[in-house]
Amino acid sequence: MDPLAVHKALANPARAEFLRWLKTPELYWDEEYYRERGVGFHIGVCVTEIRERSGLAQSVVSGYLQILRDAGLLVSERVGKWTFYRRNEETIAAFAAYVRDEL
Fold it and tell me: What is the Cα–Cα distance from 75 to 46, expressed in whole angstroms?
């Protein structure tokens, strides 16, 4: 975990909001909709759903998700032609410990 990369990724309010949404996706998206399609929130949330909720352009959302992924805060998984994102709780916990213990 690179603390500077995490800090930079979290410096943007929209990227931080994406992480908040993905912490409790059932508050923001219909879990039944995902189950009916053979996926669940354990796989993640589809990038299209994140884009729709954010109201941002597809290219902006994709770029933001890539920054979060590069920082280790998100994990992505392809299912067919769709890409799903979920939080990387291990990295988030390591960053929280870093902030608590080092700063």
Answer: 12
7 φ, ψ to 5°? Answer: -55, -45
Structure tokens at 90: 């291990």
Output the pTM of the full model: 0.92
pLDDT tens, 45-101?
Answer: 999 999 999 999 999 999 999 999 999 999 999 999 999 999 999 999 999 999 999
With a CB cutoff of 8 Å and minimum separation 6, the contacts of 39 are 79, 84
Distance from CA of residue 92 to its chain's centroid? 11
Q: Tell me, which fold does domain 3-98 have in CATH?
A: Arc Repressor Mutant, subunit A (1.10.10)
Where are the chain's structural domains? 3-98
